[in-house]
Amino acid sequence: MAKEMKHSSMYLEQADLEGYENSGIHKNLDDDGRAKRTGTWVTASAHIITAVIGSGVLSLAWAIAQLGWVAGPAILMAFSFITFFTSTLLADSYRSPDPVTGKRNYTYTDAVRANLGGRKVLLCGLAQYVNLVGVTIGYTITASISMVAVKRSNCFHKHGHENKCHISNYPYMIIFAGIQIILSQIPNFHKLSWLSILAAVMSFAYSSIGLGLSIAKVAGGGAARTSLTGVTVGVDVTAAQKVWKAFQAIGDIAFAYAYSTVLIEIQDTVKSSPPENKAMKKASFVGILTTTLFYVLCGCVGYAAFGNDAPGNFLTGFGFYEPFWLIDFANVCIAVHLIGAYQVFCQPIFSFVERSCNQRWPENKFITREHDINIPFYGVYYLNSFRLVWRTLYVIVTAVVAMIFPFFNDFLGLIGAAAFWPLTVYFPIEMYIARTKMPKFSFTWTWLKILSLACLVVSLVAAAGSVEGLMNSLKTYKPFQSDQ
Known about the structure:
- By secondary structure, this protein is mainly alpha-helical.
- Helix content is 66%, strand content 3%.
- The protein contains 16 helices and four strands.
- The longest helix has 41 residues, at 119-159.
- It is found in: Cell membrane; Endomembrane system.
C-alpha cells in the first residue's frame, strides 16, 4: 500500500508525523507532514487575478448600462470593499483556533467544520461545490463563445457586417473539453502556478484591448447615449424589463468578484513564513485592487463607448468589428485565460473527490496505484488510473451541460447570485464571530449581521433577475447558432 501511494498527491497527507520528525526528511516537509509549500503572495495574487478577472469583466459595460452612471460604479465599488473585507476574515480561518499557529484547514469546508461545525458544514460544502461546478460550466460556455468569435470576426471582415455568420458553439466546446482533459491530469493546486501566471497575463491582455478599443471609440466621436439611471424605460426597455435587467446586472457584478470558493485552497499553497494569513491578505489586497481598477475602467469606458446599447460581452458580442485581427487576438487571450481559470476552479473538486475516495477505499489499487511514465523533456509522470478516469468524466459532463445551457449573461448572474451571499459573506462573518467569541447584540455583532442580511437581499434579487433572463433566453434560443 505504501509503495503504491508513494508518489500519489495524497501520500503526504497521511504522512506519519512522528516518523517525519525523527528523520532527515523533515526539512522538506511542513508542520503537517506535507511537502513544504513554496507559494508567496505573488503566486497567490496570480491565482486570485486568474479567478477574479475572468469573463465577468466583459459584461460590466452591459451591467453599468442597466444601472447607470450613479448606481453602476457605486455597486461595483461596494462589492469590491465587501469582498476584500470578508476575504481578510476568511484568510484568518485557514488555521484554527489560532490564525498563525493553529491546525491547518485545507479546504473551505474544513474551515467551517473547525469554526462552526454542525449542519453548516454540509451547507457550506453544498454551496461551494455546486458553485465550483457552475463556474466550470460557465467557463466552458464563455471559452467556446470566444473561439467562435474568432471565426465570426473573420467572417464579418470577409463578407461584411450585415452577414449573419452563424457558427455553432458545440465543436468549440468539445475542443475546450479536450484541452481540459489533458490539463486536468495536473495532480494538484501546487502545480498550477505557471498556468495561473499565464492566465493572469492573458486576462490583462484582453481587458487592456477592450479598454483601448473603448477609449478609441469614445475619442472618435459619435458619443453614445448614456444616462445617470441607465437604460431608459419606454425607450430602451419596459418598466418590468428595467427591474429584471437591473437585478441581473447586480448578479453579473457579484460574479465578477467571486473567488472566495477557492481562497482557502489558494492559501494552502503559500509558505508559512511570513504567516499564511498575512501573505493572503496582501495577495487579496493586490488582487482586488488590480481587478477593481480594470473593472471600473472597462465598465465605465465601455458604457461611455456603447451607451445604453452596450452588448452583453463587448468583444464576443461584436461591439467592435475592426481591427479584426486585434479582436481575434483578444478572443484568443480570453480562451487561453479561461483554460487556466477552469483548472483553478475545478482543482478543489478533484481534490475533494479523490481524498474522499482514498479515505473510504484505502486498499483499492485502482484508486491508489501510481504508474511511472517517462515523458521526454518533462521527466517521470505518475499516472493514477482513477484520477484519469474520473477527471475525464467530470470534464465531459460539464461540457455536455454547457451545450444544453449556452447562455452567457444569465448564467453569469445566476452563478454570482448563488455564491455571493453564503460563500463570500455569510460563512466568513459567522466564522469570525465564532472565533472571536463575540457577544450577541454588541455593536460589531450587530453591524456584521446587518451587512450579512443586506447581502442576502442582494443575492436574492440578483438570482431572481438571472432566472428571468434564463427563461427568456430559453424561449428565443436557436440551437446550432452562436447567440452571442
